[in-house]
Amino acid sequence: FLVRALPLKDAEGKIVKWYGTNTDVQHQKELERQKDNFLGIASHELKTPVTSLKAYAQVLESMFKRSGDLKNADFLSRMNKQVDRLTNLIGDLLDVTKINGGRLQFNHSTFGFNEMVEEVVEDVQRTSSKQIIKKNLNFKREVFGDRERICQVLTNLLTNALKYSPDASEIVIYTEDHENNVQVCVQDYGIGISGEKKDRVFEQFYRVSGNKQHTFPGLGLGLYISSEIVKRLNGKIWVNSVEDKGSTFCFSIPIRQETAL
Ligand code: ADP
Questions:
Q1: Any stretches that span the bilayer, and where are they (predicted)?
Q2: CA distance linking residue 175 with residue 189, whole number of Å
Q3: Mutate to test the pocket of ligand 1, among 88, 158, 201, 230 (most ligand atoms within 8 A of CB)
Q4: Which of 8, 123, 217, 241 is within CB 3.0–4.6 Å of 193 for a Cys-Cys bond?
């Protein structure tokens, strides 16, 4: 924007004022604010009907199951899965508006790190036939931090690993116990990410473009949200990847958050 700023000079050629700059920046900021505001209201409004849809679909699914009507139970189970996807998408949009508005809240508690990892793996494994292999989850370490938000980061990495790898391949998850932090890595043997694009995957709305990628659904928000969460927890998140070979996404967080955020 500064490039477009023009100096207003007096008779002696002295700059008395710049014009252009301020209005452009303000205008851009106002548009950003309106966008965030709209996203916030829209996702909030979408959440209520979707929550009630989910409740009805669950009741119907168990009714059909109980009466032995397996065909309809299967339809309802598919419907439930789609409603879950919708709920996650809305949740991501809500999180982004919270992050952009500086309103992402944390709720810290003490919890067993590897227990949490096991729980997330179990949940995600239920949704996929690909094998998630656990390695080195045998250390016991208590962490003081926001358990739910850390689960969210790990869920994102695992669901991406499943999404961006071929059907027959497996996923490996391993943890490391360091003096002041704990680390977890999710490795896949999928499509991978090329060099220059690797640095951008944590950006808001960024999705790698190309033949291989366009068939995968998504908003390009999961990694952005994950990196913001990890940043706020004073941790680090990174990726090593080779195109067509696979990716390893890792994050580490301090074992103790110093202040309530
Ligand atoms: P989404 O998956 O909804 O597009 P994300 O923010 O989770 O959004 O990821 C951003 C982009 O990074 C994805 O669109 C994809 O191109 C790339 N990506 C993420 N995880 C992987 C992975 N495990 N393997 C290959 N590419 C990935």
A1: none
A2: 18
A3: 201
A4: 241
